[in-house]
Amino acid sequence: MICLPGLEAFIEANKDLIDVIEIEPQPLWFKSAAAAVPYAINTDVLAQLRADPHPKLVHGLGFPIGGSVPPEPGQVTLFADVVKALDASWASEHLSFSRASGADGVFSTGFLLPPLQSAQTVALAAANIRTLSASLPVPFAFETGVNYLQPVPGEMSDGAFFGAIAEEADCAILLDLHNLWCNERNGRQGVLAALDDMPLERVCEVHLAGGDYLDGYYLDAHSGLVPAELMQLAHAVLPRLPNLKALMFEIVPAYMRAIAHRHLTAQLHELHRLWDERKTTLQVACATPRGTLRHAAAVDDALPSPPQWERALAGQVLGIATDEPCTVPPDTDEGIRVLRQLVAAVRSGTIVDSMALSYRLISLTVGESAFLALLHAFWKTRPPEPFATEEALNFAEFLRTQALRIPHLDEVLAFELASHQVRMYGQPKTVRFTCSPLPLLMALRSARMPDFTDRGEFALTIAP
In Å, what is the CA distance from 124 to each residue of 60, 83, 116? Predict the structure, then answer.
């Protein structure tokens, strides 16, 4: 099972049904103020994960390997350190991009975006994989990505693209069957056809999940149990994977509250039956040369370069001008509108999660619609930040320029930002208030409007 914050109790309660856990380490680290140490990690949480008795895998989401902007060396070093600390059997990352290079330098896209499936991207991704693999003490696999855009004329099919990268980089594949199922349901290559184009002997891991709908698109939302149709497909696919070592179930903790515990436990039993059946029906697969990369080169000249594609797509999704003349993907692709909504959901969720009290104070005072208007105005001033604390800091700076006249907002903002810093750096911080801080903060914690009656000069010290 993918081990996300909030799933610890479920994993512990079902430890006899869960054989391996997969860790996404980026939520554990943050930008560091220490000299020569650009990033640091929450050592307490890492120690808790190390103490967990399950065998472990490490799955990155901070520097996907499908883009032209190289990962920051400090993050790669920390990624390798986590792999070593958890004694992971292998490591993986997404075949996507999350940063692009614009006129003002490199900026974050706020979401994993799909690369253009061209021979140039194959060469680029393979080079990224070789560089990253050289820094890791274990084998590396890339995840087959989800793509909400329609195929661009001249680009490689999904399966041919995945297969060419695996062979060019000589690496393993993390086959996310739910991603491929999303692609098929949204008008891209069918799952079985994609698999026919891939070297299935390179698949070491499979992901299964549930999804949801948005404006007619089926999303890789990790929002529920594995659909019956996808499970039936998995029964046909897993016996074709001779070197499969792990089968992972993905679900976002927030969605588990709507699912009865017995149904979640039944899901784990069903995945065990799927695994046991595979062992008895395993087929012998032979690698065959495919020549997909040579075929793609014939039409590659008509496609934009990877940096051009990244700037164009990121600009369309974020609504920012990039001065990129690239005409693909077209503005008429409805997948772009879906990506815009997903980026907005991630950015708003990041702000509300990291600044819950400030959000409540604003909404209780001027209303939810006014808060959303502030968010949209903020997004026009800055691209997303990959770290929640940095996004929160930028939003706080933006709010201070808006002359909102909301009582004690500056103090609540200062308290929440200081709380982030205390958690990250382990040092106490003191915040000053012009009203009694505890009644103010406890009212907001309960989503109630404070009465602001107890005025004076107060100082609240936040300890680690």
Answer: 19, 24, 11
